[in-house]
Amino acid sequence: MTKSELIAELSAANPHLLARDVETIVGTVFNEITAALSRGERVELRGFGAFTIKKRDARTGRNPRTGEAVPVDEKVVPFFKAGKGLRERVNRGGK
Amino acid sequence: MNTVTRAHLSETIYTQVGLSRNESAELLETVLARMSSALESGESIKISGFGTFSVRQKGRRIGRNPKTGVEVPILPRRVLVFRPSQVLKAHVNHTAIPTDGDDE
Q1: Do B82 and A79 lie within an 8 Å CB cutoff?
Q2: What domain range is A27 assigned to?
Q3: What ipTM describes this predicted complex?
Q4: How confident is the model over A41-63, as pLDDT tens digits?
């Protein structure tokens, strides 16, 4: 499923809403999560999961092709941990 | 650290779109519910500019209780993984946002 498919499904399920508004709603969700993480905040959606950032120390990496050492600066990476409810649903879904 | 919750997200939806607070909260719930059911059925979700949620099958392996050292089998299971897009990674690092289309 893609973002546009998600928007299309929500529009179909909510015929009283303008497609443009549904697009704004879905866009807002992901934009707000992005903005929060950029401010160094976490986003916790109980039952779904939590978005956080994790710090990665500076390290010396290597160009895998040439073997040359290259410095990699300290950085942060976005991280998502599925909540209990979703984690269990995903695992059960395979059975 | 500040935590953003459903209440913040639905408040933002409320201010962006001319819906009631109640309906804004319901729609947020619908977005999350629809995503959850797609993942439950094993489907990946690709959000351009944000990232990809996918379900990975893990095989059976032997784990160990770190405290007692006792071996315990870890059964095959399915886990959810999130791969952030290059755009999201750039945002959180305050670096230049890649513009050339969507990665993954």
Answers
A1: yes
A2: 1-41
A3: 0.90
A4: 999 999 999 999 999 999 999 99
